[in-house]
Design brief:
The chain is mainly beta and 205 residues long. The chain contains 2 helices and 12 strands; from the N terminus they run H-E-E-E-E-E-E-E-E-E-E-H-E-E. It has one domain: Beta Barrel (Lipocalin), CATH 2.40.128.20.
Length: 205
């Protein structure tokens, strides 16, 4: 039976194709990102003008992250927000009377990039996290970044929604697999009176 003269060529092409896709697979996997993830989201210098003042907060957080848990812990806190640099920076301080926990968030606006960077400092450790970056488009704010959770690299998403002048919805999600998001923290904020809630820009205790 006659031999197909192009058969060796086709076999060679098949082998080269397998080698090629095997070689690029790790690169494709490492470049994967969960839906919507982007560190190039921009905003405006007055994005957080609405946030200045005092807020009472009702929050809930997952008791166990990255475990398929739907068991939430709930608590309340107060937040006092002080703007600086004509709106280009602000500091918010949080205090939870029930747990005695406290934290501070620093937000700064990069004029060249037209982008906010947001960093949280835990009252327990005094450590600055790696931060999230982004901005607002109207009443919606989107912020993304890289961090670690229990030693595992994660991607972070923080979403803001200005419901109205006196109400704000905030949520945080982590991605452990670069494919899906797990929402692990939700806060609903209501505007409060700074004179009764804050003293010198800090929550009253």
């Amino acid at each position: 039976m006659p031999t197909n003269p192009i058969a060796p060529f086709l076999r060679l092409c098949s082998i080269l194709a397998v080698i090629f896709f095997a070689a690029i697979a790790p690169a494709q996997q490492s470049d994967a990102v969960p839906p919507g993830y982007s560190t190039s989201v921009t905003g405006g210098i007055h994005d957080f003008d609405f946030y200045a003042g005092a807020w009472t907060v009702q929050s809930r957080g997952l008791k166990a992250r990255n475990a398929g848990s739907r068991d939430w812990k709930e608590f309340s806190s107060v937040i006092c927000v002080t703007p600086y640099l004509s709106g280009g920076a602000n500091v918010s301080q949080m205090y939870s009377p029930a747990s005695g926990s406290a934290g501070l968030t620093l937000r700064t606006f990069d004029l060249a990039k037209q982008q906010w960077s947001v960093h949280y400092i835990s009252g327990k450790t005094g450590q600055l996290d790696q931060g999230v970056f982004g901005g607002f488009d109207g009443a919606q704010g989107k912020f993304f970044g890289l961090d670690e959770d229990n030693g595992q690299p994660i991607k972070v998403r923080v979403l803001w929604t200005q419901v109205d002048h006196d109400h704000v919805h905030w949520e945080q999600a982590f991605s452990y697999d670069n494919r899906t998001w797990e929402v692990n923290w939700i806060s609903d904020m209501t505007r409060a009176s700074p004179s009764t809630t804050c003293a010198g820009g800090q929550p009253k205790r």
